[in-house]
Structure formats: structure tokens, C-alpha cells
Write a structure and sequence with these properties.
By secondary structure, the protein is mainly α. The protein has helices at about 5-35, 40-45, 60-65, 70-100, 105-120, 125-135, 140-145, 150-165, 170-175, 180-195, 195-210, 215-220, 225-230, 240-275.
């Protein structure tokens, strides 16, 4: 074996070792939370930690006996579905207009999208708190889904417009020559052609909405509490129920994990369609 081939083999081996180490490092917190959720209170607080123990499911049973957690889980499902539907309904025509129509100040619109996406979430809570109290949107599913658009729409429009720019403009022109309206061009040509990108955008929005905490903390009280707030409900005044809290964390992770696993092909294909270039 030549020196060059040996060097390449060693480089590949180190790349695999480094990648494996990073994967294990990123998965270790999830493993730790999972093991604590399967331990008794005594084993969970043992010092040094117990690596070998008898697993129990009492903490998971406690979750469904707990009055609020199952409702916070359902709230997150409803809010995420509404929020993703709203973001796509608004962002698809907006992205088409930005990418294909002659819109004045399109460059400034793109700049605004990036700046709006970069603003911290808590900036919107204080002004929206009074407005939501006045309009009756406080502590409602639709209220949270609407305020999430402040973050979701800039990202969605920016991504989708990048995907739409990858579509050959000649297809657009041919469709209009056949008598298609702008709306028909969008729904019959652009959305099907950029479907992986649309799915990737929906998934990224769903993951963010599911995991969001700051806005939900400021604009809900009891009726529309999300699953992230449900996880923190096991924190008492002088103690933490680590078993129930870690079990709630695992259950909160599972839907998005399963969703991402089944949709990863769309995510990769969508993001390589043109979003990275945008």
C-alpha cells in the first residue's frame, strides 16, 4: 500500500472516529434523561450515579395521572398544526411574489426577513401581552399560533423563495401562455416542483413551534399551556420531581424525533434544493 493510500485510510478512520465521538456526545444528554426517567427516586439521586439499575415505568404512569401534562401535550399538537398551516398558507404566495414577480424593494424585503428572524422572542411578549388581553387571544391556541408567525413567516418566506428561484422560469412563462393564472401557476407548478422544500419548511417550523418556551410562558396561563411548560410543572417550591420531569422530557421529544426520522429524506432533499444557496 502506497504512502498516499495509507494517509487517506488514516484520514477516513479519524473522520469516522471523530463523527462517532460527536454523535455519542450529542446523544449522551438524551441517554442520561432516559435513564433517570426509568429510575426510582432513590436511584435517580444516588451519588455516584448508578449505571446498573432495575428500570421502572412508574414515572411515566405518573405523567398520565398528573392532571395537566396530557392536556399540555394535546395543546402543543393543536397549536403546532395550526401554526404550520398558517405559516404555509401565508408564506407560499408571499415567497412566489418575492421570487418571481417584480416587487419593489425585494432586496429590502429579504433583509427585513433576516432581521425579523434574528430578533429575540421575548421582545414580542410585552407589547403583545396587553393586546392579547384586550382582544381575548391571551391563553388561546389560535393566539399562540398567530404570534408564532412572527418567527415562522420570515424563515418560511426566505426558504421558500430560495426554493422557487431554483425552478426554471420558462415553465412559469409556458404556463401563463396556456392561460394559467398566477394562483394556478403557484398551486399546479411551483408547489409540486418544490414539494421537498415545502415539506422541509413545514418540518422546521413544526420543530420550532413544538420546542418554543419563552412566548408560551408569557402568553398562556392554563388553557393553552404547551408541552414545554408541562415539563416544568414538575418543579416544586423546594424540590424537583426529577423522575417525572425527565419522563415528561422524553415524551416531549418522541413526536418530533419520530417526525424527523420519517421526514429526513424530505429535509435533506428540500434543503439541498436551493435553501443553502439562498
Amino acid at each position: 500500500m502506497s504512502a498516499r493510500a495509507t494517509t487517506q485510510t488514516l484520514s477516513h478512520a479519524w473522520a469516522y472516529v471523530f463523527t462517532g465521538a460527536m454523535v455519542l456526545l450529542s446523544l449522551f444528554p438524551v441517554y442520561w434523561v432516559l435513564t433517570v426517567s426509568l429510575k426510582s427516586r432513590k436511584d435517580g439521586l444516588a451519588n455516584p450515579p448508578l449505571w446498573i439499575f432495575d428500570p421502572i415505568v412508574d414515572n411515566y404512569i405518573k405523567l398520565w395521572e398528573h392532571g395537566s401534562f396530557k392536556y399540555t401535550f394535546l395543546n402543543s399538537v393543536i397549536i403546532t398544526l395550526i401554526g404550520v398551516a398558517l405559516s404555509l398558507a401565508i408564506a407560499l404566495p408571499a415567497a412566489y411574489a418575492v421570487s418571481r414577480l417584480r416587487v419593489r424593494g425585494a432586496r429590502w424585503i429579504n433583509l427585513w426577513l433576516i432581521l425579523a428572524y434574528m430578533l429575540p422572542e421575548f421582545l414580542f411578549i410585552i407589547p403583545m401581552f396587553s393586546l392579547y388581553q384586550w382582544t381575548g387571544l391571551y391563553d388561546t391556541h389560535i393566539g399562540l399560533a398567530l404570534i408564532y408567525q412572527v418567527h415562522a413567516l420570515p424563515l418560511s418566506i426566505w426558504l421558500l423563495s430560495s426554493f422557487f428561484r431554483e425552478i426554471n422560469p420558462a415553465i412559469d412563462e409556458a404556463a401563463r401562455l396556456e392561460g394559467c393564472s398566477q394562483w394556478q401557476v403557484l398551486t399546479r407548478i411551483y408547489i409540486p416542483c418544490a414539494l421537498p422544500g415545502v415539506v422541509a419548511t413545514a418540518i422546521l417550523n413544526a420543530i420550532w413551534m413544538w420546542n418554543e418556551l419563552a412566548i408560551a410562558l408569557g402568553l398562556t396561563f392554563s388553557r393553552a399551556e404547551t408541552v414545554t411548560l408541562g415539563v416544568t410543572s414538575f418543579r416544586g417550591y423546594a424540590a424537583l420531581d426529577w423522575g417525572a420531569m425527565t419522563a415528561a422530557s422524553i415524551i416531549a421529544i418522541i413526536p418530533m424525533f419520530v417526525f424527523a426520522v420519517f421526514a429526513q429524506k424530505h429535509i435533506v432533499k428540500g434543503l439541498t434544493l436551493g435553501a443553502v444557496k439562498g
